[in-house]
Write a structure and sequence with these properties.
The complex is a heterodimer of chains A (216) and B (278). Chain A is mainly alpha-helical and 216 residues long. Helix content of chain A is 80%, strand content 0%. In chain B, strand 6 and strand 7 form a beta hairpin. Chain B contains ten helices and twelve strands. The two termini of chain B are 33 Å apart. Helices cover 35% and strands 26% of the residues of chain B. Chain B is of the alpha/beta class and 278 residues long. The chains are: A mainly alpha (216), B alpha/beta (278). Chains A and B meet through helix 5 and helix 6 of A and strand 8 and helix 4 of B. Chain A: InterPro entries: AA_ABC_transptr_permease_3TM (IPR010065), ArtM/GltK/GlnP/TcyL/YhdX-like (IPR043429), Ectoine_EhuD (IPR014341), MetI-like (IPR000515), MetI-like_sf (IPR035906). Chain A: Its main location: membrane.
Chain lengths: 216, 278
Amino acid sequence: MQWDWSAVGEFMPMFWDGVLVTLQALVLGVIVAFTLGLVWALAQRSRLKVVRWPVTVVTEFIRNTPLLVQLFFLYFVLPEWGITFSALTTGVIGLGLHYSTYTAEVYRAGIDGVPAGQWEAATALSLPRSRTWFAVILPQAIRRVVPALGNYVVAMLKDSPLISTIGVLEMLGEARQFGSITFQMVEPLVVVGIAFIVIAYPASLLLRALERRLVR
Amino acid sequence: MSADSTPNDPNVSTTKETANPAVDGSELIRFDKVTKRFGSNTVLDELDFSVASGKHVTLIGPSGSGKTTILRLLMTLMKPDEGTIKVGGEYLTHEERGGKLVPAGERHVREVRKNIGMVFQQFNLFPNMKVLRNITEAPVHVLGLSKDEADERARELLDQVGLGDRCDAYPTQLSGGQQQRVAIARALAMRPQVLLLDEVTSALDPELVAGVLDVLRDIAQTTDITMLCVTHEMNFARDISDKVLMFDSGRIIESGSAEKIFGDPDHERTREFLSAVL
């Protein structure tokens, strides 16, 4: 097997397209995962059983089935019921929804970690429920769990190639496409592998720095 | 503190209270056969007692005798298993509906509870908010004060507790004694009729205790606020209390003036307890 530098050069235009799509899927997926996760966490703290119970069932179900199966389901089964999204949108929803069930657990741990005295002080001041949550509890809870949430950003980055299976041309998708045209697989795959390290490792370092600043 | 208060005589009713005959210089808090259990452990046993408006009442007794439970019941941090509690003539955990006494809805509890403030052993300041906002948060979002009004009130209170220059600090940047004084200011900013003090100096380093007690003495002397105080600071209790209640195993075994209880208690248990802590 021969390493062909010219193949690397030829792959570059496709590669950059792929990087852009990967980052797009990642950022949007993270937004979905972080927002929806918070919704799940709050819903599981609801005083209403009819809210708590279905949310528990749904999140447990999603957390305990493979992301790949969920992506296929969203992409191939939903259109039969008349619900159609673009491949990228489907990928973002799949990735975000799957990871929202993990971030929900992270938020839950953060909320549980806020001392009971904070709830008691809020009660003693008769703060409305919404103020108690959004001004007192959540700011403290989220601060505690930023590092754990950050780890899921890196995990989502590493799971993002799964969305190439439903035809999203992110980095891996572009590499496979390049390989199927030129029959040169090694060069694009190595480039993509390096790209993941180049994105993920600094991100980990950044998270560790953030952790040192936030968790005292 | 409040504009309509009559500083030197706690028994003279204020204009505000006159509007509400139930608290007119008389009974502000009433416990009626209140029972509280934790599992098989009965912490309060059919407890009856009342506190007159403007009085300073200290609860003493061995730990586990139910003192703190009384404060927590009043603050609605827990619910009584049996019996009723009235504050200012209104049921706290119940409400009357169609002539029947039913468990109170959240709105009712909120309304009655507004008259009560509490200072905790562990301060429980909000660490994510600066000192000033710790104090203004509830006046703005519960009483509906404008931000400027609330800020002004908070600054006055901070001056009063000797922390006028620490508005922009975060709680963790303050000493325990300073944090506790902020917590006192935070409770007072709601202008409660009743202030509950739950072992407010127990978590403090010894050299910081005096500053907090001075602030509380000042409040006791210059306002007509009703105080319920659980403390192990017997000298402080002797100074400020109109009445002292001695608890043992969920019952009041003796009550009387500070001079009486600390000077010449009737009950043997009281004598034992005081000789152990004094």
